[in-house]
């Protein structure tokens, strides 16, 4: 692994990274897809060694053919990514690197299987749809107002004109308070609502409550986008770029954007694949999802790892490919700088990675954390964004962020999703 990797970072003296910056700040507007400032919790100690028994029968994870219950421990991938070589781990990685307040973590559970039926009945939360109490539909706030977002689009277009970047993905975070209660919100219940109203190929949820004594997490995703899959030694990715309400609404700008990001993904995979093995197996395919369509490409390569390298295989893979190309931009380093300058606070797990890594089986499936809710500081949050190029129109890009958010935000608020 290269020196300075975010997945091989030194641990501070107290075993934790520094405090996260405030997630949202500034002046906000009221809107149907709009966020208020909130506090963030500090990290908790990760707890137990790998062979320790479960200390509690709480916590669950469910994602793409893997299920877990009864949390045992949490590891910090900036320190312990080599641990992913053994066992089944459920992963949530923030978009930001540790220097900018991000965390990449993985949880191990006492019970796991390929279906919920493989888990003990008393270890699986019920979480019926009726158990979900979402925010009021008019309670959502946006970290960027319409005018602020459109100004950010104009700023990216100026950066493209100046030759600083070819594309940058600009996002905003929506947030709304949840009804007060004496327990954490029911992640399983929200996941079931989304599964019924917005089925997605990479849907899932992970909830480790604070009362577990293990570092907590609360994420529910309906992601349509594959970040990384490892199967039979082949590492593949399925970047999405290009969104419209229907196929005829896709623009030439969408196609150009997708080709640009597909090339970036190809370059990322080449850094951890056998020479000559990386190929684009599908380019500009149109995929239909509830309420919209996407342009999706597929890239794969035969994965390899430097023998004895710090962080192991997954330390190298994540260092080479993270954050996902489709939600950063090209060149990636320039796009990340522009994102930090224009967005109002960190994205957290939105645009990060969510999924599982099975070290014993040599398999993994990680989604890009889009169409994703997370709960923190008594607020439910949801991110939405768009890729900005020279061909972008500020009003159209704002409308794209609205399109991506509308259905899922409505479902979380207890409203019917428009078809």
Q: How is the secondary structure organized here?
A:
Layout: E1 60-63, E2 66-76, H1 77-80, E3 88-93, E4 104-113, E5 141-142, H2 146-161, E6 167-177, H3 187-197, E7 202-208, E8 217-223, E9 226-231, E10 234-238, E11 240-244, H4 252-270, E12 279-289, E13 292-302, H5 312-321, E14 329-330, H6 332-342, E15 353-358, E16 363-368, E17 372-376, E18 379-388, H7 394-412
Antiparallel strand pairs: 1-2, 1-7, 2-4, 3-4, 3-15, 5-6, 6-14, 6-18, 7-8, 8-17, 9-10, 9-16, 10-13, 11-13, 12-13, 15-16, 17-18
Helix pairs in contact: 2-7
Report what the structure shows:
The chain has 419 residues and is α+β, with helices and mostly antiparallel strands. It is 21% helix and 30% strand. The protein has helices spanning 77-80, 146-161, 187-197, 252-270, 312-321, 332-342, 394-412; strands spanning 60-63, 66-76, 88-93, 104-113, 141-142, 167-177, 202-208, 217-223, 226-231, 234-238, 240-244, 279-289, 292-302, 329-330, 353-358, 363-368, 372-376, 379-388. It has an 18-stranded antiparallel β-sheet that branches. Strand 1 (60-63) and strand 2 (66-76) form a beta hairpin. Helix 2 (146-161) crosses helix 7. The longest helix is centred in the middle third of the chain and has 19 residues, at 252-270.
């Amino acid at each position: 692994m290269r020196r300075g990797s975010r997945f091989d970072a030194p641990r501070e003296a107290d075993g934790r990274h520094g405090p996260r910056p405030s997630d949202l700040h500034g002046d906000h507007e009221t809107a149907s897809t709009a966020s208020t400032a909130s506090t963030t919790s500090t990290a908790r100690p990760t707890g137990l060694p790998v062979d320790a028994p479960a200390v509690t029968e709480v916590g669950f994870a469910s994602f793409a053919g893997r299920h877990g219950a009864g949390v045992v421990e949490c590891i910090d991938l900036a320190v312990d990514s080599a641990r992913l070589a053994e066992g089944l781990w459920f992963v949530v990685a923030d978009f930001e690197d540790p220097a900018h307040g991000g965390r990449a973590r993985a949880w191990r559970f006492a019970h796991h299987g390929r279906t919920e039926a493989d888990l003990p009945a008393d270890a699986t939360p019920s979480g019926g749809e009726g158990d979900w109490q979402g925010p009021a539909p008019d309670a959502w706030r946006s970290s960027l107002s319409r005018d602020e977002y459109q100004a950010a689009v104009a700023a990216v277009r100026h950066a493209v004109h100046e030759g600083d970047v070819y594309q940058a993905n600009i996002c905003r975070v929506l947030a709304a308070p949840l009804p007060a209660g004496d327990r954490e919100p029911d992640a399983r219940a929200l996941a079931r609502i989304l599964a019924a109203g917005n089925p997605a190929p990479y849907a899932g949820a992970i909830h480790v409550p604070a009362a577990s004594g293990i570092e907590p997490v609360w994420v529910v995703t309906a992601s349509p986008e594959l970040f990384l899959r490892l199967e039979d030694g082949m590492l593949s990715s399925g970047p999405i770029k290009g969104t419209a309400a229907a196929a005829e609404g896709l623009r030439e700008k969408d196609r150009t954007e997708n080709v640009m990001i597909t090339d970036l993904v190809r370059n990322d995979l080449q850094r951890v694949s056998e020479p000559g093995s990386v190929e684009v197996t599908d380019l500009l395919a149109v995929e239909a999802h509830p309420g919209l369509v996407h342009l999706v490409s597929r890239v794969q390569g035969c994965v390899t790892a430097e023998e004895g390298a710090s962080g192991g295989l997954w330390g190298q893979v994540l260092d080479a490919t993270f954050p996902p190309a489709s939600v950063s931009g090209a060149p990636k380093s320039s796009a990340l700088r522009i994102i930090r300058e224009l967005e109002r606070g960190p994205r957290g797990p939105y645009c990060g990675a969510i999924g599982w890594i099975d070290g014993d089986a040599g398999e993994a499936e990680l989604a890009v954390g889009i169409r994703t809710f997370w709960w923190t500081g008594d607020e439910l949050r949801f991110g939405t964004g768009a890729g900005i190029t020279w061909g972008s129109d500020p009003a159209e890009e704002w409308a794209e962020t609205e399109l991506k958010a509308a259905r899922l935000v409505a479902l979380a608020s207890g409203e019917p999703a428009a078809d």
